């Protein structure tokens, strides 16, 4: 007779994601996962596989849950400059909103696991690539509408903004004052505004 799961795998994955986000991959033991998820080791392994497989599932879950709204913001119909400002200001405010300074799980994973872990490197590259695509699409839309500087390469600007965002996440996690990050937001926005 098949073993019946007595827990919600999606809720367990959310808890695993939060634990990896809080502690990092290396500092999270299988025992920590078992305790946090409230499942037995055998149920954990039967449902998610080993710790690396669960970490990959947690990263993919993060991409859907945390990064999805940012993508939606960039692909919406509103003014592009407003969307990019909202995105950057949200990241600048994150250290104050989340005083535990978890940062971004994708950035944390990149810093901790890449390049040694090819599976994590692939998830990080996919996330950064989709973020760059969404930004480039938004920037092109803004250029076509005359909201943004048409004389600059949208792909290069998107790469610049991806790098700015990742840097903001790292220094935010390290404890940077949101006002300092606010200065970064203004400089980044100045780089994409039309010349006066």
Automatic annotation (TrEMBL):
The keyword Ligase appears for this protein: no
Recorded GO MF terms: DNA binding
One Pfam family hit: TetR_N
Keywords: DNA-binding, Transcription, Transcription regulation
Record InterPro entries: Homeodomain-like_sf (IPR009057), HTH_TetR (IPR001647), Tet_transcr_reg_TetR-rel_C_sf (IPR036271), TetR_C (IPR011075)
Keyword Transcription regulation attributed: yes
Highest classification ranks of the organism: Bacteria, Bacillati, Actinomycetota, Thermoleophilia, Solirubrobacterales
Domain HTH tetR-type: 6-66
Protein name listed in UniProt: HTH tetR-type domain-containing protein
Residue ranges for the DNA-binding region feature of this UniProt entry: 29-48
């Amino acid at each position: 007779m098949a073993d019946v799961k007595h827990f919600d795998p999606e809720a367990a994955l959310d808890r695993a994601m939060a634990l990896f986000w809080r502690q990092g991959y290396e500092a999270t033991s299988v025992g920590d996962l078992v305790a946090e998820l409230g499942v037995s080791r055998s149920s954990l392994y039967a449902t998610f596989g080993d710790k690396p497989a669960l970490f990959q599932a947690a990263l993919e879950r993060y991409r859907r849950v945390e990064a999805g709204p940012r993508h939606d913001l960039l692909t919406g119909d509103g003014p592009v400059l407003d969307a990019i400002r909202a995105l950057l200001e949200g990241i600048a405010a994150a250290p104050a909103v989340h005083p535990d300074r978890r940062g971004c799980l994708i950035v944390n994973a990149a810093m901790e696991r890449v390049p040694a872990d090819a599976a994590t490197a692939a998830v990080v590259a996919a996330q950064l690539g989709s973020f760059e695509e969404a930004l480039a699409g938004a920037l092109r839309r803004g250029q076509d509408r005359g909201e943004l500087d048409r004389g600059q390469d949208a792909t290069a600007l998107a790469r610049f903004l991806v790098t700015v965002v990742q840097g903001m996440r790292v220094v935010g996690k390290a404890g940077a004052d949101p006002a300092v990050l606010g200065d970064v937001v203004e400089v980044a926005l100045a780089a994409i505004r039309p010349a006066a």
